Amino acid sequence: MHKIYLLLLTSFTYAQTINFNEALNLTFENNKDLKNQKLNIDLAKLNIKKVDSISYGKLSFEEQINRTNHAGYVFNSKLSSREASFNDFGAGEFRDSSTLNVQPENLNNPKDRNNFNTKLNYDIPLFTGFKLSNQKEILKLQQKANEVKYNLNKRQVSYEVLKAYNSAVVAKEFIQASKKAKESISFVEKAANAFYKEGLVTKIDVKQAKVHNLNISTKYLEAQNKFQLALAYLKFLTSKSEINDVENLKYIKLEDSNFDNLYKKALENADELKMQNISNKARKKNIEISKADYYPTIYSHLEYGFNDDNLTLDGDKDYYNAVIGLKYTIFDNTRDIEKQKSQIDYKKSLLNYEKIQDAIKLELEKSLLDLKSKEKILKEKKETLILANDIYRQSQLMYKNHLIAMTELLIQEASLRNTQAQLILAKYEKSLSLAKINLISGNSFIEDNTTLKVIK
């Protein structure tokens, strides 16, 4: 008994009722896509640092060890270690001018030799035709694009959470409506049984009421299943398996329903436009990068090392090599082609910006019309429900007075239940319509001044 009590207590402790703001905050905190997008922002920052690192140059250590009897390599290694002598040229084999054509043995067939070349290299680009600076600016734009995309994903996730949360609320309302319908029809069934015992109605009335009651029981079970499915999706989005109930339907209210004001706000806040604007700037920078090939490239290579037949740091064996190089392309027709392609990409990007503006305008117009339609439908469904309730109550009274048959009473009950379902769906659809307008206009789905509870 103690174990059963502990189990019930544990279940009660971890079961949670959640409201929309809590669901949204939990999703922001746990959503895997949002976490990935944050990592993309970090990667973009590292790419900027990488370009900065290139401009600082690269310092490297190099150790080359080789053994060879290759005449050229052996003689070069002797020269590099300052050990070359006239004997390497076969000086001992020259007797007079008649022996000038003698092939020196020491030079052509040297003994095997080890060579250790120990050196530090420093390579740095001095001027790249502004390619590095422009590339850095593009990477900064990419970082900004990732940040804007993160906000865009948050807004899209907000809309998805609202749909999931309100779906759970609606499913819960269907359960409550089915429960009330079951209570109502159970009363009708009891009345039919009582009338039948008194001989006022036939057995068919009892059977019809019972069948109707069973059908409502089925609808009740279906509503419970839909509620559990809706909760399962909400748990998936929030990554919180403890959720077992939801609060009230969430409406994202509109501060202003004027089209011109909403459209102006949408143009200011739309992340899609911000991303396209960033794309425009990046493509404009690509034009500058394509011009880099018209400039000379200047680079430097610094080298300091030691060369000997063994590993050494002897100052007599050291050397340095300082190089400044310049490369300038005199003719390459592909440069102009690449430049023209970049200019075309930029023009396409500008057109896409205008296209997004037009799409936002169209979506906003459609959403406002949809909202007006949904509000009108909701108003009508509320009025219809009042009438359906009156008709059903009147039908119950008429059935008790034997003025209508059981069939007619059950038809009116089914009509009432259907009207209730339509009203619930109308409220849900209005909530989505409001959310869609807020999504387009860039409004936040969560109130900043709301104190949010944390599920532990």
Helix content: 55-70%
The H/E string reads: HEHHEHHEHHEHHEEHH
Radius of gyration: 41 Å
Distance between the termini: 28 Å
Let me know the average pLDDT. Answer: 87
Strand order, largest beta sheet: 2-3-5-6
Given the C-alpha coordinates, what overall shape results?
elongated
Secondary-structure class: alpha+beta
What's the number of helices?
Answer: 11
Share of β-strand residues: 5-15%
Total strands: the figure is: 6
Please describe what this structure looks like.
The protein has 456 residues and is α+β, with helices and mostly antiparallel strands. It contains eleven helices and six strands. Helix 6 packs antiparallel against helix 7 and helix 9 packs antiparallel against helix 10. The chain starts with a helix and ends in a 15-residue tail after the last helix. Mean pLDDT is 87; it is low at 1-13 and 448-456.
Core attributes:
456 residues; two-stranded parallel sheet; disordered N terminus; 6 strands; 11 helices; alpha+beta; four-stranded antiparallel beta sheet
Task: Summarize the entry for a quick read.
It is built from eleven helices and six strands. By secondary structure, it is α+β, with helices and mostly antiparallel strands.
